[in-house]
Specification:
This protein is of the alpha/beta class. Helix content is about 55%, strand content about 15%. It has a domain at about 35-165: 3-Layer(aba) Sandwich (Rossmann fold). Helix 1 (about 5-20) packs across helix 7 (about 175-200) and helix 2 (about 25-40) crosses helix 7 (about 175-200). It is globular and about 55 Å long. The two termini are about 20 Å apart.
């Protein structure tokens, strides 16, 4: 983490987590679990944004395939809906996701748009806000454990979007609990970092959240 503003916000988050006896992380975890459990279905929208995921040997990971397969089903059901794939890298997650969908042959390539420069979830959504028409309706598709953080980021960026889970349900498996706890750490970092930036008037950090 090379940016001093991010290092500062992380340090503040760690202090808050320790000073609260872990309560801050617990509250963030409850936020993550609440969103993992309650969201379901996809309303008819103009654009379905698919969050990327790390690749395995330049191929979609199993988690990314789950997101793409769900998007494919929704695209077949809602023929007016266009898909917007996000994620950078070399090769980019968005390009790999597009190729996976096109190879399966159920979604026309003309319905697929890409964003290939972002490096994380917040940048994904910032690019969505920049590249998609503001008047169009949006939904964002990702794994259930990811939806709580997406809700925070979308709100911060003033993005009006429905959240769509890639899985039919969330189960408290060891892996799901572990990744949801990791998400809680990100949520805690973001919320405390934002509060610190406002209270301490850290303009660089605030600018990174716009």
């Amino acid at each position: 983490m090379g940016d001093s503003a991010l290092r500062e916000s992380l340090a503040v988050s760690l202090v808050v987590a320790l000073a609260s006896g872990g309560l801050a992380v617990l509250l963030a975890w409850l936020w993550v679990l609440r969103h993992a459990l309650v969201h379901n279905g996809c309303p008819p929208v103009d654009w379905l944004v698919i969050c990327g995921h790390s690749l395995n040997s330049a191929q979609p990971s199993s988690e990314y395939r789950s997101r793409l397969a769900c998007a494919e089903v929704l695209a077949v059901k809602h023929l007016q809906m266009q898909l917007f794939l996000t994620g950078g890298g070399t090769p980019s997650e968005a390009v790999v996701g597009r190729d996976w969908l096109v190879q399966r042959g159920r979604v026309e390539s003309t319905r697929l748009a890409l964003e290939t420069s972002s490096r994380d979830t917040f940048e994904n959504l910032r690019q969505v806000r920049t590249l998609l028409p503001a008047c169009d309706s949006l939904a964002i598709l990702s794994s259930r454990y990811h939806l709580g953080r997406l809700r925070l980021y979308a709100s911060q960026l003033s993005l009006q979007a429905a959240l769509v889970p890639a899985e039919s349900a969330w189960y408290p498996t060891p892996r799901n609990l572990a990744v949801s706890l990791r998400e809680a750490a990100f949520v805690c970092w973001f919320v405390t970092g934002r509060l610190w930036a406002r209270l301490a008037r850290r303009q660089r950090l605030l600018s990174m959240m716009r």
